[in-house]
Design goal:
By secondary structure, the chain is of the alpha+beta class. Helices cover 64% and strands 15% of the residues. The longest helix has 70 residues. The relative contact order is 0.08.
């Protein structure tokens, strides 16, 4: 008769409330009580078999009342239920139950793959939602920035046109006072001609310029057509 702590590992296969078969490994650590050596020696021929039977009884009574997810969450409660049952029974035979551990919960491989797939899908769904929310924020901020830029651009254009109008008004007044006998039309023609030459200068000095000036007279269309026909005929 040994007073050392002994351990027995019992594999129990049963199904859960949601009809999933699961294999559970229950490890029981037990020891002979010194004050009950007589009972321990003469009461049981095979204490390990007795412990195994009680483990089967408790686990197959408890697991069918729990769903698979709940089994993983209530592992400590299951171990405590097994320990209480064994302690009450085995103490009368001279054995002390020191510890009961549920060391493994192993459902069918297909069930584990399905659980991993569900978890992966949830995380992917969460990631997609977060990405979509980020894209939404970027688009909203971009739209707000674009609206603000257009507003400021409009304000700038309005101020620019007001400055041009004020400048033209001042130029017309100064020109009329300096040159006698000129009309407002003469002054406007002169200003438009000046702006026309300024435009030509800016276009001509711009790098990589590809602007083509087309005459705007009544016969301009026919002249352009005739010039294009002559070019084609000369090829």
């Amino acid at each position: 008769m040994s007073f050392r702590v002994q351990q027995i590992d019992v594999r129990v296969e049963t199904k859960t409330l949601d009809n999933v078969f699961i294999t559970t490994v229950v490890s029981v650590q037990y020891q002979v009580l010194r004050e009950k050596v007589f009972e321990a020696f003469y009461s049981l021929a095979n204490p390990a078999q007795q412990i195994t039977a009680h483990i089967y009884d408790v686990m197959r009574a408890e697991l069918p009342t729990l769903e698979l997810d709940a089994v993983f969450e209530t592992k400590e409660e299951l171990a405590l239920a097994v320990k209480n049952c064994l302690s009450e029974t085995m103490s009368t035979y001279g054995y002390q139950i020191l510890q009961v551990l549920i060391t493994d919960l192993d459902p069918d491989q297909r069930v584990k793959n399905a659980m991993n797939e569900i978890n992966s899908s949830k995380r992917l769904k969460y990631a997609v939602a977060e990405r979509a929310e980020g894209d939404k924020i970027l688009k909203v901020k971009s739209a707000e920035a674009e609206a603000e830029a257009k507003y400021l651009s409009g304000v700038g254009v309005a101020k620019q046109r007001k400055a041009i109008v004020d400048g033209l008004r001042t130029s017309i007044v100064d020109f009329s006072d300096g040159v006698k006998g000129t009309t407002s039309k003469d002054i406007m023609d002169l200003l438009l001609l000046t702006q026309y030459f300024d435009c030509i200068r800016d276009v001509g000095t711009a790098p990589h310029c590809r602007t083509t000036f087309v005459p705007s007279s009544r016969s301009a269309g026919d002249d352009v057509r005739n010039a294009l026909l002559q070019v084609e005929a000369s090829k």
